């Protein structure tokens, strides 16, 4: 075996070693990326569920606010009507009281 054959064998061994290290590194990077992608997918899924829940709660709150607004408007109308009736009753009593005083 001459020196050229020895250098060739060392070069081939070094190439194989470097190739194996590169393959292991690429595999490790791929695995890490896959795991990160899986975590991100899970987080996106959770966020999507949270957004859907919050949207439903928001819609329910909007519906309840509308119901309360309608009820408040109805009570205001009833209170106004009651105030008018009381005002009319006071006027009738004053007129009747004045009429009694005159008789």
TrEMBL record:
<protein>
    <submittedName>
        <fullName>Uncharacterized protein</fullName>
    </submittedName>
</protein>
<keyword id="KW-0175">Coiled coil</keyword>
<feature type="coiled-coil region">
    <location>
        <begin position="30"/>
        <end position="85"/>
    </location>
</feature>
<feature type="transmembrane region" description="Helical">
    <location>
        <begin position="6"/>
        <end position="29"/>
    </location>
</feature>
<keyword id="KW-0472">Membrane</keyword>
<keyword id="KW-0812">Transmembrane</keyword>
<keyword id="KW-1133">Transmembrane helix</keyword>
């Amino acid at each position: 075996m001459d020196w050229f054959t020895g250098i060739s064998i060392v070069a081939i061994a070094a190439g194989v070693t470097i190739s194996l290290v590169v393959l292991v590194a690429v595999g490790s990077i791929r695995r890490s990326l896959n795991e990160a992608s899986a975590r991100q997918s899970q987080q996106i899924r959770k966020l999507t569920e949270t957004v859907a829940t919050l949207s439903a709660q928001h819609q329910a709150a909007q519906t309840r606010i509308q119901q309360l607004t309608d009820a408040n408007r109805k009570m205001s109308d009833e209170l106004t009507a009651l105030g008018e009736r009381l005002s009319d009753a006071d006027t009738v009593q004053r007129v009747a009281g004045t009429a009694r005083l005159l008789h």
